[in-house]
């Protein structure tokens, strides 16, 4: 089954580039392209969509708000942000984005996005997932399973809580939260919260 896909970016060249890349994948059916986010919203209200590639920095209606509106229309629409601004990654994953791709988008990076879609479709019937190595990859150094407390801390990070707020929620010291986060970073081979969110997406960790 091909995924009915929309591309939204206020730059014509960016739209054309994504169209060219996505046309190489048999799973993708591009049904709408636009530089106007409000037009994209109206289209989504009238037509079925399964995948949307959104720029973030757009006039009048930015990509984050558009993603929220699309989610209200159909929470099953997969959202991929393609943007030149890394600082919005945390907010993007809070909106349950499928992926966050930095411009200029490369063919290899787009291939990873499609790989993620394929894995999610194969595992759609699965209930939960314990963190471990990515499918098809060798085990990364230090990527052992998280303890229950480390998982609790990580999930609260995904909710946007600070270390102090996490400590209060779990009734532990803030220094203990830092210690748990250090272990999480080591086991998942990341160095900050943005990378952690991306790694969690790669491992299909539910949050």
Automatic annotation (TrEMBL):
Q: Which PROSITE patterns match?
A: HTH_LUXR_1 (PS00622), HTH_LUXR_2 (PS50043), RESPONSE_REGULATORY (PS50110)
Where is the PTM 4-aspartylphosphate found along the chain?
Answer: 55
Does this UniProt record's set of keywords contain NAD? no
**Record SUPFAM superfamilies:** C-terminal effector domain of the bipartite response regulators, CheY-like
- Domain called Response regulatory: residue spans: 4-118
Swiss-Prot/TrEMBL keywords: DNA-binding, Phosphoprotein, Transcription, Transcription regulation, Two-component regulatory system
Pfam families for this protein: GerE, Response_reg
Domain HTH luxR-type spans what residues?
A: 139-204
Which InterPro entries does the protein's record reference?
CheY-like_superfamily, Sig_transdc_resp-reg_C-effctor, Sig_transdc_resp-reg_receiver, Tscrpt_reg_LuxR_C, WH-like_DNA-bd_sf
What SMART domains does this protein map onto?
Answer: HTH_LUXR (SM00421), REC (SM00448)
Q: Does the keyword Electron transport apply?
A: no
Annotated segments matching region Disordered: 124-144
**What PANTHER family does UniProt report for this protein, alphabetically?**
DNA-BINDING TRANSCRIPTIONAL ACTIVATOR DEVR_DOSR (PTHR44688:SF16)
Can you name this protein? Response regulator
In its UniProt entry, the species of origin is given as Cohnella cellulosilytica
Its ancestry begins with: Bacteria, Bacillati, Bacillota, Bacilli, Bacillales
